[in-house]
Write a structure and sequence with these properties.
The protein is of the alpha/beta class. It contains 27 helices and 23 strands. The strands form 6 sheets. Strands 1-12-11-10-9-8-6-2 form an 8-stranded parallel beta sheet. A 6-stranded parallel beta sheet has the order 13-18-20-21-22-23. The chain has a 3-stranded mixed beta sheet with strand order 14-17-19. Its cofactor is Zn(2+).
Amino acid sequence: MTTFHILGFPRVGAKRELKFAQERYWRQEIGDQDLCDLARALREKNWQHQAQANADFVAVGDFTFYDHILDLQVATGSIPARFGFDSQNLTLDQYFQLARGNKTQFAIEMTKWFDTNYHYLVPEFTKATQFKANPAHYVNQIREAKALGLQVKPVIVGPLTFLWLGKEKGEAFNRFELLTQLVPVYREILEAIAAEGAEWIQIDEPALALDLPPEWLEAYQAVYAELSNVNAKLLLATYFGSVAEHADLLKNLAVDGLHLDLVRAPQQLAAFADYDKVLSAGVIDGRNIWRANLNSVLDVLEPLKAKLGERLWIAPSCSLLHTPFDLSVETQLKAQNGDLYGWLAFTLQKVDELNVLKTALDQGRAAVADALAASQAAADRRANSSVIHRSDVAARLANLPQNADQRQSPFSERIKLQNAWLKLPLFPTTTIGSFPQTKEIRLARAAFKKGDLSLENYEAAMKKEIEYVVREQEKLDLDVLVHGEAERNDMVEYFGELLDGFAFTKFGWVQSYGSRCVKPPVIYGDVSRPAPMTVRWSQYAQSLTQKVMKGMLTGPVTILQWSFVRNDLPRATVCKQIAVALSDEVADLEKAGIKVIQIDEPAIREGLPLKRADWDAYLQWAGEAFRLSSMGCQDDTQIHTHMCYSEFNDILPAIAALDADVITIETSRSDMELLTAFGDFQYPNDIGPGVYDIHSPRVPSAEEIEHLLRKALNVVPKERLWVNPDCGLKTRGWQETVAQLQVMMDVTKKLRAELA
């Protein structure tokens, strides 16, 4: 028989139950036991979904209250010592403090999980780090699942990936030196898992898809020789890219099976043709929502089955964390666009697809003939659809003016023209764009969508919110204002709703971090802009104030990265289509008198291919797309961009090549560490390093912000330094937002007086 398993499941629930319970807990509306009871119920539902689809194992240990890498920090006793917490007796409240910060400690730094839009909490390693096993997270979930009579497969991120994903703090050292201390602790955790009766343990090592240094690669042999001594079989899971270059290493590793991502890297299968252990084939896309052509998948799997027999396992390419929960609830999408609905598969549908594949492999295609016919019919309809391709969009892209992506003059000339009319003080202050999405805003939007509030009344409500945002910024004496984005449900979804080629789900939520969920648009066809999207809102905001108003757009790469993207066209082409559509919006903003325009690109870094050999091609088309989004604008129009929660030091030439007049970046959680690279590189344009963490409700002290700004002044010339928060303020409350910004302004004015 063919073994069918899942690498991981969405955590937040079909209706985001965990998110809402977490936030109630943080507001002290429910207690520990209430939150734990709900989490237990969600885990059981996830396991039952897998079991009912005939999965041979259910994934356990993948559920988390906030982040699976934070759970691993607790399990290995490596939580930051600065909090003063005991990892062996950590309370739920302390666990959340690690993720969100408290009155005395900033939260653990957060960054992207490989090239996804999920964020993990970065382990902080010091030379003095001492590991200590605490396997309770995994053991308790195993016991829960086994009590339900389920066959379990615990999931844990492997030691080399865990160590690689961390950062050194304090006295200089190489965190690789900690491996010899870490491996015995891992073994202790695995032994505790095995003692619960787990036959197989899945150990995720996605770092193998990266360009690891030789000593890290060489360590795999010894590490897994040690871990293989536990009384359970080990399945080493790789994903997000090819590991073909490590085939010899992996074939000889002391593990009992290997998982390969055959969606992202189907070509790597050839390198493992002679693998003589369990081979888990990741054949259903765990990162996108397109329905698989099951006949085509079987064309790959059937020869493998003939060769491997029971050593063939089938699975999604990676954890299903990255896909929405259930397509069947999307009744509105089905009614509006039945063809598109028929082309999609969410988590539960992907599990069903795997069940069909398992049955076909074990009993023959005839046993699932109807399911295979339906899959083929959907694939054929999509391939031949007339609504996907538009000749006018293709023609415009093919006939762009020469050097369309280049500004008219270099920055050194543009900035003089911009400064002449802006007349900003030293250390100009601004925010990243969004202000709190209050309960009133959300209620008005919900009422409007339900038809309970007229368009006229909805827009009046949004204008009232915009005026409030403008007045609060004026009181704070910010220099460059924003309208606050009250009318926007999401920085990507809002634009997708106004662009052709996009479709939307109602319940297609995926976790971004903690309780933060996003509902990515679906890019299914060629993209164009039928009408202005932001102009009237920015014009209205500007009419309320004499101060400079900044227009706010989401950039083409971020719209691409944070959407479910069609897989029948190169991503570069889709991105350039979005960029050209956005350029029309920039032109209209400029005509309307909005001559400071921010084009946010927080996803530039996360879009990098995992292999450096593929970086140049990506950075070329991503940079071109960003520049195309402002093609044709005048020299005195100031283009800003924003990037957050990413490392930039290895791609700074490409960041500089974006040629944004002002770039704002997240730097507070890293204590301005990210800014150092910009200084070493001698980044030529203006920079606004974030001076406080917007993901925490705490109000920073004046000393903290002054410390960060003085560090920034060691790197950035004072005439090119802007002051701003780390990111948008959408998720914060008004009281804390005003208090945080007031501290920022007080410190800025103090430094102006000192250094002007």
